[in-house]
Model the fold of this input.
Amino acid sequence: MNFLTKLKEQAKKDLQTIVLPESLEERNLEAACEVLKDGIAKIVLIGKREEIIAAAGNPEVEKAIIIDPATYEGTAKMIETLVELRKKKGMTAESAKELLLTNPLYFGCMLVKMELADGMVSGAIHSTGDVLRPALQILKTAPGVKLASAAFVMEVPNCEFGENGILVFADTALNQNPSAEEMAHIAITSAKTFEAFVQKKAVVAMLSHSTYGSAKHADVDKVVEATRIAKELAPELALDGELQLDAAIVEAIGKKKAPTSKVAGQANVLVFPDLDSGNIGYKLVQRFAKANAYGPIIQGLAKPVNDLSRGCYAEDIVGTVALTALQAQMAKNA
Done:
């Protein structure tokens, strides 16, 4: 059973309600029908019922909860709540109404905020900024979390590294050049992501072009400081740095370059020093190793909202729905 199949099976054990706000988009409708048919989650679609059913061309879509913001009886309460959330930013009842009636991503986030849904998946036809803006404005970050970040779960075939070829890479999509403190928080939330999805103990490597002082540079100093902060914030974590990639995942090299480290050679969570290296790194592994890359998983939000690539396939959306459902399960059980 591969990683994605395991995710789907776990999602089925406690059905969550996930919003797909891009509800007339072909891939979203195909994914919605597959999720509903397989019993992976309950699905909310936003728009006029007759238009959605006609666009889907599949009777399975009628199992979805279809909500038209223009006629929904809870829209007035949503407007009131959104004004309260954003009044310091100048939100009025008129602007809140217009936003909720015309932007399904804001309407979807309000469904999640008001606990009418458990999570949201979007981005097939919207940019990452468009997806995250309402999530950060309405849902905000979880208590104790400094910032949202993005990770990929990488499933590498025929691979001995990580947890039988499964690793988490972060940050791969959001934070361009995180400070030492921000990198430390990314490491902690990434460890939680690994443990939630893989159900094994996280072993976190703070990556650099240097191992234990083999190079001198301000970029290395940042990773050293991030390691110190992360250990202070989460002393229970198996976490170490600064480590080069080979020292982090190859046991023989880890023993040679960092013989006193309990992480070197054993890492299954790789925290990159900046967005360039993280994004390039996961794509290299995805393409050269023919790895499955599940994500980007948005970490650190109070409730789960996940982004899609605009080049995604329907099956990618199904997988992201399953991931989001597991995040929702985890949040409820925390």
Q: What stands out?
A: Residues 258 and 271 are 17 Å apart (CA to CA).
